[in-house]
Structure formats: structure tokens, C-alpha cells
Amino acid sequence: MSEHQQAGSPEIDQVATDSAANGPRVLKPATETPLESLSSICAVLAVGLFVMTFIFQNFVIPSGSMEKTLLIGDHVLVDRITFAPSARWAPLVRYREPQRGDVIVFYKPNPETPDLILVKRLIGVPGDRIHLVHGVVYLNGVAQNERYAAMPESSSDPEDAYSPARDDFPADGTPLGSFEVWSQALPSHVENGDLIVPHGSFFAMGDNREHSADGRFWGFVPRENILGRPMFNYWSFETTAPQMDAQQESLGARVGAFFTTAVHLVDKTRWSRTFHLVR
């Protein structure tokens, strides 16, 4: 027997004595200190903030300019990665440029409202030639079959009825209500009756063409203004455009909307649109 074994180990002897007298010792789980709890919460918040700022972001649709694709009260999850500049540290992420037909989320190209976010459908990419004939889009000389787009119709409502400046754009200049800066710039982008989309810009319109203040009214969307693309509806609640506008202007309206939503959560939720893909 070695010298160490003969002398015995005080620690081992003590454990043996305790086990014999009181049974096996049970280790208690370590409790988290308040500082450690705060650190964990901050870490979760930081990750969540990063994800919701740079990867995904939720938006609510406040107007009917994209009906029937998107309805007022639709809550959509927006992918902010696909259209972002490629990064070397994320080689497996799929990046691409916006394409014709994409539904895009972007900052409105208007210096008076630089932080206003809109959602429209991308109609033309750089170099495309575009004109409308009675609401039908002609892209590079070819009429487009856009099943999702609302066409002008015979109606007493002036927004639904045919309007030459809006529905034969750009033959008659900009429609009534267009921004002055765009009205002045439009002629320099028209060639042989076609609107030419310049380098680094895109042309977008709403699917509900007769009720959409879109590129015809304010011009091109710069590439840097594009934030991403809506992926799907995660929730849709029946509401109206005036109610949505009121929530932006009044705290009382926001509080009222909260209680209205709580009371009518079941009967006014559009359950059939839950997880509805945006195309």
C-alpha cells in the first residue's frame, strides 16, 4: 500500500463518513444570481432585436392599394435578407436582385416623407420600357397578363372609372395628384411613348391599380430604398383604412383599437389568410 493510501485522504474520509451516517449526498442545483439573470435576458433581447431588424420584420398593411394580394389589416413577415447586399461572412445565404413581379417593401422615394414605408409590385427593372394602355401594362412592347391587377371599369366612382393620365401612362403626363418634382422629371425618362427605367432604379405599382398612388404618381424606386419582400401573412384582422389612419394620428385611437381587437379577436380574424403566402 502506498504512503498516500496509508495516511488516508481527509476529503475522501469525510465523504465516506457523511454517506454512512446520513445517506448519499444530493447536489443542489446552482441558483442564478440577479446579475446573471439580467445578462441572460439582455442576450435574448439582443438576438431578437438583431433578427427583427436585419433578418425579418413584421408590417401591417394600412391601405387597399394591393388588394386582392394584400388586404387592409394583413400582418406580414418581411424577409430583409434576400435583397440585401451579399456578405462574405454568410456565404450560404441566398441573395438576389429584385425581379419583375416581386412584391417589395421599400421607403417611399419622396423627400417630404423619407421614412414612409410602402408595399407594391415591381413592374420594371433597369432598362425596361413601360407604358399602359387602358390599364394594361406593356413591358418592352409586350402586353402583360396580370391576373392580380384590377383594371378600370364603367363606374360612377371616378377612382374606378377609366382615367387617361393614370391608365394610359405616360402618354398624357403624370396623373392628377402627382408630385411636382416627378411631373417635371417624367419627360426626360420617356422615349417613343415608353417610360425608360434608369440604371439603379425600379418601377412599382399597386395591384389595385385604380386605388393605388404608386410609381405613376411619384416616380422610380431607388435600389437602396428597397428593404425586402413580404413572405406570408402571420395574422389578418378585419379593419378599414380610416381606422388604420386614425391609429397613426391618435394615442386614443390606438388604445381603442387595442380593446376592439381584444373583443373581436375571434370573429374578425381572417383565419383563412393565416400563413397565406404573398405572391
Protein described:
Helices cover 27% and strands 21% of the residues. The protein is built from eight helices and twelve strands. The strands form two sheets. It has a seven-stranded antiparallel sheet with strand order 1-2-12-3-4-10-11. The chain has a five-stranded antiparallel sheet with strand order 7-6-5-9-8, with no helix packed on it. A hairpin with a 2-residue loop joins strand 6 (136-139) and strand 7. Helix 7 (241-249) packs across helix 8. It is globular.
Feature tags:
single chain, 8 helices, alpha+beta, 279 residues, disordered N terminus, globular, seven-stranded antiparallel beta sheet, five-stranded antiparallel beta sheet
Short structural description:
By secondary structure, the protein is an alpha+beta fold. It is built from 8 helices and 12 strands.
| Mean pLDDT rating | 84
Largest sheet descriptor: 7 strands, antiparallel
The secondary-structure class comes to alpha+beta
**Radius of gyration from CA coordinates:** 30 Å
Beta-strand residue fraction: 15-25%
Q: Tell me the number of strands.
A: 12
- C-alpha geometry: globular
